[in-house]
Design brief:
The chain is 74% helix and 0% strand. It is mainly alpha-helical. It starts with a helix and ends in a 5-residue tail after the last helix. The relative contact order is 0.12.
Length: 199
């Protein structure tokens, strides 16, 4: 029963997050109320507040949730697989669905407007710190290191996050719009080459 309850909660989070994102892109984040997001999912504003503290948190949750999964996927990769290959495969599992379709018309412009707000930027920066910490822990687990004593996992996690952020920024600027997945993989490949391929 608890498993079903958790799946329902997760589905509600996902629905609220996607509704918040779509409404913000369509109408501008400043014009979207919590009541609008809740109504789009047919729940009450109180239910929304049980899941998220703000519309900004709701919007970024989907991206944050996907990125946090990378750590678990890395831990599940074969133990004898080189670290960079494991990271690339884990990222591909999460972002592979973004590999074939360019964003719909107006999507990029909507995201740019949304990301220009201080509240949204703050939410993104907070999320990136959490993802980097989780990835560093997963790398440390894989290599048998202690992230509180060894800098290496944090250095690699920071480099991976920088590659991801660079690919995302490039995705927002390139014309015509392209899928994000290949850009992320290209950024990771360039990072692997810089590291000599065998971290």
């Amino acid at each position: 029963m608890s498993g079903l309850r958790e799946r329902k909660k997760q589905a509600t989070r996902e629905a609220l997050s996607m509704a918040a994102l779509r409404l913000a892109i369509a109408h501008g984040i400043e014009n979207v109320l919590v009541e609008d997001i809740a109504a789009a999912v047919d729940v009450s504003p109180r239910t929304f507040n049980n899941y998220f503290s703000s519309k900004y948190e709701a919007i970024w949750w989907r991206e944050l949730n996907r990125a946090m999964v990378i750590g678990d996927l890395l831990r599940a990769r074969p133990a004898d697989e080189p670290l960079w290959d494991g990271i690339t495969h884990a990222v591909l599992q999460v972002f592979g669905g973004d590999a074939t379709a360019a964003p719909p018309a107006g999507w990029i412009d909507g995201i740019k407007r949304m990301m220009s707000t201080p509240q949204m930027l703050g939410e993104v920066l907070k999320g990136q710190v959490a993802v980097q910490d989780e990835l560093a822990t997963a790398i440390a687990d894989r290599l048998g290191l202690d992230p509180s004593r060894d800098m290496y996992p944090r250095v690699i996690a920071g480099a991976v996050m920088a590659a991801y952020q660079t690919a995302r920024d490039y995705w927002l600027e390139i014309e015509p719009p392209v899928p994000m997945g290949p850009l992320i993989l290209e950024a990771l490949a360039q990072l692997k080459n810089l590291q000599g391929g065998t971290p």
